[in-house]
UniProtKB/TrEMBL annotation:
Family per record: Belongs to the alpha-carbonic anhydrase family.
GO annotation, cellular component aspect: cytoplasm
Matching SMART domains: Carb_anhydrase
Protein's organism: Notodromas monacha
Keyword Isomerase on entry: no
InterPro entries cross-referenced by the UniProt entry: CA_dom, CA_dom_sf, Carbonic_anhydrase_a-class, Carbonic_anhydrase_a-class_CS
Domain Alpha-carbonic anhydrase: residue ranges: 21-283
Protein name: Carbonic anhydrase
Keywords (A to Z) from UniProt: Lyase, Metal-binding, Zinc
Class of enzymatic activity (EC top level): lyase
Function noted in UniProt: Reversible hydration of carbon dioxide.
Length: 283
């Protein structure tokens, strides 16, 4: 997940967050996050390597369900470490492992410099080329996203793996078309064509579920993860377009010593130790 949650953080960490924002996956790589954000070395961190076939089979009393306005996402922003769809319409997620109704906050993605890596979660040690995150918060128990992000189980994130195939994905193309409008960090534009969150979900509802964290600093351990088993297929050109985003603002100089040439070439955190956590298998 790529989130900036500031509630409950000390000033020192806030400053670190600003510094890290530009180089999150370069100079200050994920292995160093714990220097400023101790939770990053906690026992409930995400992502994880999912042990397929060795999860705890679970049948929840009600199935996982969702409803999204087809035009829910109408704006897009360059966060400096990727694109993020902003949500104006209604989106709700409930059932399955969730105790209450969760509201869609934003959607973003992670990818790698080659198609051999890029997803945050891996399955039996194997990475996908990318992963989309649909971030929701418990709007029954909490009054804001920031409050929920700091509360145990306050967030629920749907993870959708991205795989590369011959066909371009129509909904992803709406995002790709908008990227040239937001080349630099902090740029935000209206989408010419609104994005339907439903169309970013795979056909099969089978998923893995476990308790984890945000995958970017401050790495708060408040996320109920739901990772779909079936990937979404996009074209090679589409995922390549993601890598052209720039990690610096228009008024900033292109970073001279950045190994990625100032571009968001990769933005994933590698798997973290499971530390005895249960991974539920819900088919
Ligand atoms: Zn994410």
């Amino acid at each position: 997940m790529g989130l900036k949650v500031v509630n409950g953080l000390k000033l020192k960490n806030l400053l670190a967050l600003n510094i890290l924002n530009l180089f999150l996956y370069g100079e200050f790589c994920p292995h160093t996050w714990a220097v400023h954000f101790p939770l990053a070395s906690g026992k409930r961190q995400s992502p994880i390597d999912i042990p397929s076939g060795r999860g705890e089979a679970v049948n929840f009393s009600s199935g996982l369900a969702w409803t999204y306005d087809s035009d829910a996402c109408d704006r897009i922003t360059n966060t400096g470490h990727g694109w993020k769809l902003l949500v104006s319409g209604n989106g709700e997620l409930w059932g399955g492992p969730l105790p209450s109704k969760f509201k869609l906050e934003q959607i973003h993605a992670h990818w790698g410099c080659t198609e051999n890596e890029g997803s945050e979660h891996t399955v039996d040690g194997v990475a996908y080329p990318g992963e989309i995150h649909l971030v929701h918060w418990d709007s029954e128990k909490y009054s804001s996203f920031a409050e929920a992000a700091n509360a145990d189980g306050g967030l629920a994130v749907l993870g959708v793996f991205i795989t590369v195939g011959d066909q371009a994905h129509d909904e992803i193309q709406k995002i790709v078309d908008a990227l040239e409008l937001i080349p630099n960090k902090d740029m935000t534009e209206n989408l010419a064509k609104t994005v339907d969150p439903l169309k970013l979900l795979p056909e099969s509802k089978a998923f893995w579920n476990y308790e984890g964290s945000l995958t970017t600093p401050p790495c708060l351990e408040t996320v109920n993860w739901i990772v779909f088993k079936t990937p979404l297929t996009v074209s090679k050109e589409q995922i390549s377009a993601f890598r052209a985003l720039r990690a610096y603002a228009p008024e900033e100089d292109k970073p001279g010593d950045d190994e990625f040439g100032g571009q968001v070439v990769q933005n994933f955190r590698p798997p973290m130790p499971l530390c005895g956590r249960v991974v539920r298998d819900c088919c």
